Amino acid sequence: MRLDEAIRERSEGTAFVPYIMAGDGGLDNLIPTIERLEAMGATAIELGIPFSDPVADGPVIEAAGMRALAEGVTLAQVLDRLIEGTRRFSVPIVLMTYLNPVFRFGVQPFFERAAACGVSGVIIPDLPFEESLELFAETDRHGVAVIPLVTLTSSAQRVETILNQTEGFVYAVTLKGTTGKADVFPDELLGHLQALTARSPVPVLAGFGVHLAEQVRVLGEACDGVVVGSFIVEALHEGRDEEVAALIRAAKTVDTKR
User: Fold this and answer.
1) What SS3 class is residue 62?
2) pTM of this prediction?
3) Residues pairing with 4 in the sheet
4) Alpha carbons 91 and 81: distance in angstroms, whole number
5) What is the domain count for the chain?
6) Which positions are annotated as active-site residues?
7) Which regions of 35-152 does DSSP assign to beta strands (E)?
8) Domain span holding position 35
9) Tens digits of residue pLDDT in 30-57
């Protein structure tokens, strides 16, 4: 099933996509963590690849990446581990990585391997969407969607360009900054999400800063779902799985009738 279909065909509430850092706590924890999140009701999993020079990650996710790098975790190892686990889970996997690891792996080999591992999409935050179209124009991506980021400062023309060529889902960044846990979002955010969702041919998911059930409810009513990163990474690292489960349960109760 395509990523956009998996999000749209969720059984209840708004979509909930937890972000985890691959290799945080060791690669042996990767597949069991994906299985636990799937059992909690995650719509898809965003899987971060540890990178030494992240530009979009706040302190919690950056620290998780450093822990994974200290374990010696690489993109190739993560993909190898994923292919070992594909028979143990069915939730869609979206990789969040940076351009250098993809170049080092090789663009075409990366997409071939990712597809073989059951990866549905990839987010590359340091690669502008327009340049991804050019860079991957001759690449056979084997159905792996390249997920675009749209921010509050994206121009109307740029948003139009992205919506005309997007696939998988649109990642609507809710903050003017890096990932983290925000208590207050910009006043214009809900209107931005509603307008984006009304025009987008694929689902729109809001991410960056989300960590409270009330935020999941409010944002989930304005678009198709949420991505939660820093809160999930921190809670799993500290063994607070029940708080993760509670947040996912909150997403299931969101009234999505707009």
Assistant:
1) helix
2) 0.93
3) none
4) 15
5) 1
6) 46, 57
7) 45-48, 93-96, 119-123, 145-146, 149-150
8) 3-251
9) 999 999 999 999 999 999 999 988 877 7
